[in-house]
Amino acid sequence: MKKFMVALTGLVTLATVGATVPATAVTTAHAATKSTYVSPSLKVNAIYTTSTKVAGTATKGSKITVKATKNAKTNLASGTASKTTGKYSIKLSKKLKKNANVYVYATNSKTKAYFYRIIRVQAASTKAATTKSTSTKKTTTKKTTTEKSTTSSKTSAASFSVKTPTGTWTSNTANKYSQKWVFSQKTGLNEYLYKNGKKVKTLVSYAKYSVSAKTPTFWKITYTPKGSKTKQTMYLRFTSAKKFKVVNSKNQVISTKAGVAPAAKWTFTKA
User: Fold this and answer.
1) Largest CA distance in the chain
2) C-beta atoms surrounding 157 within 10 Å
3) DSSP letters for 101-141
4) DSSP class of residue 172?
5) 3-state helix, strand, coil in the chain (%, to 5)
6) In this predicted structure, what is the pLDDT of residue 267?
């Protein structure tokens, strides 16, 4: 399980709930840092069995390393993101096997804060699967019958990836109450409670937190509100890149309290 610490602004206290609902995804976002510094950003392009390099973008000047496992002593590749564009392209020391996982890290060389992603290696061919079905047409006369087989249809699996929770998320309205969560790499996570559209309480401010993506769409968030020494945990299930539900540790939707608001099932949408 991969973790990263980021300073966040306000987070509501939610019941303990328990990445990728088992969803099929190529990239598992994991983040971790052992300090209170803001961790670097990191984007990794798809990696294939034929790839000779790992490329993408990261915080400018970040050190980029690729490992076969989290604690690997040797690197599969290493380099530095451009100080002007943040782009990087580093050469792999060997070819990678299909469905193998590789760990790509972006590290701030000064603060040592880091962020990483687990990337699943894909087969060289990425074309959508094509299936053919047959329909039969018949024309009949008194003497002959002819048959013609036609039609083909294409199917492709829909997918999405979630990189970071950064941004503003607003909830559904339940019992006249609603919430707004704001994730920021600079100010942290702030959570606010509203009733009939008017702000009634700040639930959490400037909370430091770590994210562990159990699957690409199922995240565990451990956080510590400002001024508190007690860590709290919540779980999120992303149903799209811009929507998540509050769930438990078993990835089941649950009802949770938010300040003075009655317990309710919460769904958040990115503004």
Assistant:
1) 91
2) 7
3) EEEEEEE-TTT--EEEEEEEPBPS--PPPEE---EEEEEE-
4) P
5) 0, 50, 50
6) 97
Dihedral sign, CA of 71, 76, 79, 85? negative
8 A C-beta contact, residue 104 and residue 75: no
Q: Are 241 and 35 in contact (CB under 8 A)?
A: no
Is the pTM higher than 0.70? The answer reads no
Over residues 244-249, the mean pLDDT reads 95
pLDDT for residue 261: 94
Per-residue pLDDT, averaged over 75-81, amounts to 95
- b (16+ CB within 10 A) / e for 214-244: bbbbbbbbbbbbeeeeeebbbbbbbeeeeeb
Three-class SS state of 257: strand
> What are the domain boundaries of the chain?
26-120, 167-270
Q: What fold characterizes domain 26-120?
A: Immunoglobulin-like (2.60.40)
DSSP result, 18-86? --------SEEEEE--SSSSPPPPEEE---BTT-SEEEEEESTT-EEEEESSTT-SS-SEEEE--TTT-
